[in-house]
Amino acid sequence: MKSKASPRQVMNIIDLTAQKIWQNYASYDKVLSYINRWQEQIWDVNNTGWNGYDGVNFEIIYKDQNNTQINLIKTLNNMDDDTLFRVAVDMGVQIPNIIYAVPEIISIAA
Known about the structure:
Elements: H1 7-24, H2 28-36, E1 41-43, E2 53-56, H3 72-78, H4 81-90
Antiparallel strand pairs: 1-2
Helix pairs in contact: 1-3, 1-4
C-alpha cells in the first residue's frame, strides 16, 4: 500500500512510536506481544487461496533466526499508514495534520 503521508513524516512517527513502545514494554517478549495484537489475518474475498486465507496485514521482522527478538523499526515500517497511525496514537504519539476523533454518545432530553 502506498504511503499517504510524506516519507519524512512517516519515518519520524516510526521513530517516536518505537521509542514509546520500548518505554512501555522494556522486553522483547512484551514488545512482540503488543505488536502481535495489531496483526490481523487477511482473507481473500473470492476464496481463491487455501480456505480463502491470504496472509496478514503486516509482517513482523526479527533480528535473530529464532524469531525471539523483534526488529521494531523494520516491523513498524512494514505497516500501512492507517495501522501505524493507530499504533502511534495508542502510544500517545502526536501525529501532525491528522485529527483523530472518538465517537461520543450524547443523550438529549426532549
